[in-house]
Structure formats: C-alpha cells, structure tokens
Amino acid sequence: MDLPNDPVMLLSVINMELRDRYKSLDELCDDRQLDKAALCAKLVAAGFAYDAAANRFA
C-alpha cells in the first residue's frame, strides 16, 4: 500500500481503511505489512492519536 506523505492525507486514508475494512490498527498493519510504530509516530508528530475504542486516529 502506497501511503501519502502528507499527514492529513495519511490520516484520511488510514481512518478510511479502519472504518471500512479493519477491526483494529494491528489488523490493518499486519494485513498491509505496515510498520505500526512508524505509522503511529508520523501521525502522533502531526498531533493525532489512535483511539482503540473508536478504532480511529483523532
């Protein structure tokens, strides 16, 4: 999966995937072979945090 470099676009793509296809961030990262720590670090640096209960970054 090619992810956008822009953090807001990245947020949009990841939240869409979480909403439409995956029950958790772990499931998304495992299925798409993404580095969860790197993904979270990029979004956290942009001011977003993962909410496991809501299954989304906000």
Can you describe this structure in just a few lines?
This protein is mainly alpha-helical and 58 residues long. The chain is 55% helix and 7% strand.
Nearest-angstrom radius of gyration?
10 Å
Neighbour order of strands in the largest sheet: 1-2
Q: Proportion of β residues?
A: 5-15%
The arrangement of helices and strands along the chain is HHHEE
Shape: globular
Note the main sheet.
2 strands, antiparallel
Low-confidence runs of at least 5 consecutive residues? none
- Averaged pLDDT: 97
What structural category do the secondary elements indicate?
mainly alpha
Q: For the record, give the distance between the C-alpha atoms at the N and C termini, rounded to a whole number.
A: 21 Å
Number of helices: 3
Helix content: 55-70%
**Number of strand elements:** 2
What would you note in describing this structure?
With 58 residues, the protein is mainly alpha-helical. Helix content is 55%, strand content 7%. The protein is built from three helices and two strands. The protein has helices at 7-20, 25-32, 36-45, and strands spanning 50-51, 56-57. The protein has a two-stranded antiparallel ribbon. A hairpin with a 4-residue loop joins strand 1 and strand 2 (56-57). The longest helix has 14 residues, at 7-20. The protein is globular, with a radius of gyration of 10 Å.
Write the layout of secondary structure elements.
Blueprint lengths: L6 H14 L4 H8 L3 H10 L4 E2 L4 E2 L1
Antiparallel strand pairs: 1-2
Keywords:
single chain; mainly alpha; 3 helices; 2 strands
